[in-house]
Amino acid sequence: MQNPARVASSLALKVAAVLLLSTLAACSITTGDNTFDAQDTTADDSEFSMLDSAGIARIMQSKSVRLDMRTGAVVKADVGLQESSTAPDLAAPDGEKLQLSIRGSEGRLTAATDRVRFTTTTSMPTMDIVYYFLTAEDRESYFQLLRDGVEDYGIDGEAVESWIDGTVANPEGADSYALAPGSKLGFDVVYDLRYDGTNDTQVIIVEVSAIS
C-alpha cells in the first residue's frame, strides 16, 4: 500500500508542474518579481549556488547556477531558503544565458539556458523538480540537442531517431512530445519537445527530478 503522505506530496508536485507548464510560451516566458521568504546566507566559496536574495544577485552577476541534486532534490535549507519559501524563478537578461550545472550522484549536467524554474510547495523542505529551457534556431541544431541528450543523459536513442524521422517527413508540422527519461547521471532527465516547423526558434523544456 502506498504511503498516503507520499501520494499527497506526489499529487501536489504534479499539480504544480501542470500549472507551471500551462504558463509557458514557446520562446518568451513572462515572470513576476523574484520575491520569496529567504535568508541571506550566500557564501563566496560555496561549491553550489545559494538561492536567497544575495545568492540570486550573485547568480545574475556571474550568469552561473550550480545545483546539488545528488539526493534527488534541491534541499531548501542548503540553498538558504526556509521550508515555507516558494521557489525562485531565475531568468537571464534578454539576449543572455545562464550557465547551469546540476550535480547528480553519477555525474554532472551542464547547459546554457535563459530560464531555470523549480517545483515545490510551501510545506516541503525540498524543491523536487528543476525545469530549464533549451532552444535552437534551426531543425538540425534541434536534432543535435536531442542526440546530445541520448549521449549525455541516457535518453532513448531509438525514440529520438524515430521522432526525428517523423519530423523530417513533415518539417512544417507541430508536435508536443515528452521523451522517456534518461537517468545516466543519477537523476531523471526528461526532454519535453515543443516543436513547430513554422517558428524560427524551437524549444525543449527539460525536467530534472529524482529517478522514478
Shape: globular
Report the order of strands and helices.
HHEEEEEEEEHHEEE
Query: How many H/I helical runs?
Result: 4
- Mean pLDDT across the residues is 84
Number of DSSP strand runs:
11
Q: How large, in whole angstroms, is the Cα Rg? A: 17 Å
Q: What is the structural class?
A: alpha+beta
DSSP helix fraction: 25-40%
Mind describing the biggest β-sheet? 6 strands, antiparallel
Which residue ranges are poorly predicted, with pLDDT under 50 across at least 5 consecutive positions? 1-45
N/C terminus separation: 17 Å
Spatial sequence of strands, sheet with the most strands: 3-6-8-11-10-9
Quote the beta fraction.
Answer: 25-35%
Textual characterization of the structure:
This protein has helices at 4-22, 53-62, 139-153, 157-169; strands at residues 64-68, 74-75, 90-91, 98-104, 107-113, 115-119, 126-127, 129-136, 174-178, 188-196, 202-209. The chain has 212 residues and is α+β, with helices and mostly antiparallel strands. The strands form three sheets. Strands 3-6-8-11-10-9 form a six-stranded antiparallel sheet. A hairpin with a 5-residue loop joins β10 and β11 (202-209). The radius of gyration is 17 Å and the shape is globular. 32% of the residues are buried. Residues 1-45 have low confidence and may be disordered.
